[in-house]
Hints:
- The protein is an alpha/beta fold.
- It folds into two domains: 3-98 and 292-326, NAD(P)-binding Rossmann-like Domain (Rossmann fold, 3-Layer(aba) Sandwich); 101-283, 3-Layer(aba) Sandwich (Rossmann fold), CATH 3.40.50.720.
- It is built from 14 helices and twelve strands.
- The strands form two sheets. It has a seven-stranded parallel β-sheet, with helices on both faces. A five-stranded parallel β-sheet has the order 2-1-3-4-5.
- Helix 1 (13-22) runs parallel beside helix 13 (292-311) and helix 5 (101-116) crosses helix 7 (156-169).
- The radius of gyration is 21 Å and the shape is globular.
- The two termini are 20 Å apart.
Amino acid sequence: MSIPVLVARAVFPQTLERLRASFDVRHNADDTVLSQDQLIEALQGRQGLLATGSEKVDERLLDACPKLRVVANMAVGYNNIDIAACTERGVLATNTPDVLTETTADFGFALLLATARRMAESEHFLRRGEWKKWSYDMFTGSDVHGATLGILGMGRIGQAIARRGALGFGMRVIYHNRSRLPEETELPLGARWVDKETLLRDADHLILVLPYSAESHHSIGEAELALMKPTATLVNVARGGIVDDAALARALREQRIAAAGLDVFEGEPRVHPDLLTVPNVVLTPHIASATVATRRAMAELAADNLIAGLTGGRPPSPINPEVLRRGR
Ligand code: GLV
């Protein structure tokens, strides 16, 4: 009898084939986002779950699905999973780090460029047929090259963005992170640790790349926005909820900061209605890791984790490896 697992959302056919070779797979082939009750129902008797950031693995689900042993998240972020509750119940959780670092950093930089150089706003203007003449100050933005890049959160993706800024665009890079990087990591990036207030005050472009948690909730709100330069841009490729979207929409409308680029939103796929009506914001639907190659690599890594986790192998990227050490 093969091990029963649930693949909670549509996934590449090749990944599904691999999983079918090892498991009895139930697959949400039509890709509907399951309600919590539907997810619990679909997981009954299943030992493994291949999830995305849209599926919430909380205490209620874990208690209702006592057979569950492995949750393989197809994302590097895992704020959709209650890790402490998993660990307590001996459930292994895994994520997909590394394979998406460079792709996500590319997108962060693209969003920064699009925001600073007003690409979405000017493109909408052109499409609306409003381009009648050239003028000297039409859609003037702010330079990216040579400017000060501020990075909040300096993990793998933050460092990959710093490299692009320092080496590709001659930027001065400052960052804030709970812990300062070792000097040998900082040096080649030309990155300097500063306190959060200095980061907010000095950055010409501020990019957010920190994980979401109760502590990072609304890390950027009214007070933080008030410290930023009126010419500054803000980019969020981390998680919704790190920015207070209502406060940001107000700051953008009142031009207390110049512009923002957002790939993630509080309560997505809903977007705060005020963000939809301000012109100086570039909005994308959580696609920073979305290249074909990277999404394939993420799906394969999630499958590797699920297979190893359920068949006694060594999962490549466990979040709570203590579950493995403890033996299950
Ligand atoms: C995407 O947001 C991820 O965490 O991989």
